[in-house]
Amino acid sequence: MGPFKEASSGVYEMNDDPLPMVKNLVDYLYTLDYNENLRTLNQECPSPISGLQVHARMFALADKYDIKALQVLSSEKYSNMLESSSIGSEFLGSIPDVYTLTPPSVKALRDKVARFARINLENYLQDPSSREVYKRIAIDVPDFLQDLLDLYIMNPLTGFCYRCNPLSTMQALQTPCHKCGLSGICYDSE
């Protein structure tokens, strides 16, 4: 068995990944940064790609080629964009990339997505188009639903704690009834 063909030819082909993403990877290797403002992935499929999708795909490339610093950078960029974005369709559109381009053992981005969905999904689903995207994701990306359900089971009630954490598990003491708005705890007398 001889040397790898890449070693003898000096060429490494990356045909599995879209050219703009490969260019971003090469840019990162030279500058330690990459362009998040891609319009499309290729000319054959001119559908737009969001910044969140770019970061998710860069994270997947970093995992594929074992570039830990790029994983950290793309994860941080994804998180920062999540916090500054109020467009539910962009967030929802990035979920399939996060869950299908990396193996289940790679949890860094998946955990961020599930936590963000736990907090914000209710608001995003008020929009009918976002609700339709969510329904498709529920069918196509069952691992996302599993992670989200696990968060609800482990932390049924969350809230803001000034001392500990912006999102902490809370104990329900006096919460208003969703139906009538009355606060307090009611007991069944039977």
From TrEMBL:
Gene3D superfamilies: Potassium Channel Kv1.1, Chain A. This is BTB domain-containing protein.
